[in-house]
Specification:
By secondary structure, the chain is mostly helical. Helices cover 76% and strands 2% of the residues. It contains 11 helices and 2 strands; from the N terminus they run ααααααββααααα. The protein has helices spanning 2-17, 24-41, 43-57, 62-90, 97-103, 107-127, 144-168, 179-196, 204-212, 218-253, 256-261, and strands spanning 132-134, 137-139. Strands 1-2 form a two-stranded antiparallel sheet. The longest helix has 36 residues, at 218-253.
């Protein structure tokens, strides 16, 4: 529940940067629905599709929705890069030989590359204030204060999700499984899921975590992932669907003139 409240910060930051006005109840609805549908059905056909429907009924134009989703994606990658950089450089991450070979570079090098990307983005937000034009739509990089909030919200999201997954693994019986390694494995799974567009990341998260831990921990890891999906993906999907149905009901029963304007 706390994690889904934090996810509201993604949408709030995007709405504030676009200088749009939306009640907090709708901001929370968009976040809960968007992320729960994205987790279960995938971001392309689930999260983004349902966001388009919601925000179009709330008066957002197509270009504004595209800009909105772009800001959400940027926030997502910022927190992921920040945590991956910190974990690879300073936290006690335990990697198997197979994972080390697939990284190609030393994990410390990857950590510094991730943090360098974050630094470059923050510098650009601070010093490059010219608008970026996309056809007739104009957008600027968020100011430093808002970009710092992007980092905090996204990092908090990934930390809590990883913590839920870590708690579900019986790590007392598996001393090689520590929180830092679970965090890096979860972040890696998220990267692969986004890059491959596999709906819900089914199979991706399982394969990624199994590759990060010894084979004798496989049963515990798979069981934890199944429980994680039930708690973190499928349970929130129920109230999210109710919110979608409620929004459709309100759209259907609001005055005809308002529907025509929308």
């Amino acid at each position: 529940v706390l994690n889904y409240l934090i996810l509201t910060g993604y949408d709030w930051i995007a709405i504030r940067h676009l200088k749009k006005s939306l009640p907090m109840s709708k901001v929370m609805t968009g976040a809960i629905v968007g992320y729960s549908y994205g987790n279960v059905l995938g971001w392309l056909l689930g999260g983004n599709a349902v966001r388009y429907r919601l925000y179009s009924t709330w008066g957002f134009s197509l270009l504004e929705i595209v800009a909105f989703v772009t800001i959400l994606a940027t926030t997502f990658w910022l927190g992921l890069f920040l945590l991956a950089g910190v974990a690879f450089i300073w936290l006690p991450v335990k990697l198997t030989d197979d994972v080390r070979e697939k990284l190609m570079l030393d994990h410390h090098v990857w950590g510094w590359l991730f943090l360098a990307s974050i630094t470059a983005y923050l510098l650009a937000c601070t010093f490059y204030r010219k608008p970026i034009r996309i056809r007739d739509f104009e957008v600027t990089l968020p100011p430093f204060r808002l970009s710092a909030m992007q980092l905090m919200v996204s990092a908090g999201d990934f930390l809590l999700a990883s913590l839920v997954l870590y708690w579900l693994i019986p790590h007392q019986a598996n001393p090689d499984i520590n929180f830092s390694t679970v965090l890096v494995a979860y972040l890696t799974g998220q990267i692969i899921t986004v890059m491959t567009h596999v709906p819900g990341g089914y199979g991706i998260l399982e394969f990624t975590l199994l590759s990060f831990f010894p084979s004798e921990s496989a049963d515990a890891v798979v069981s934890a992932i199944v429980l994680f999906r039930v708690i973190y993906y499928f349970l929130p999907f129920i109230p999210a669907t109710l919110l979608v149905l409620y929004n459709e009901y309100r759209v259907k029963h609001r005055p005809t003139e308002m529907n025509q304007r929308t």
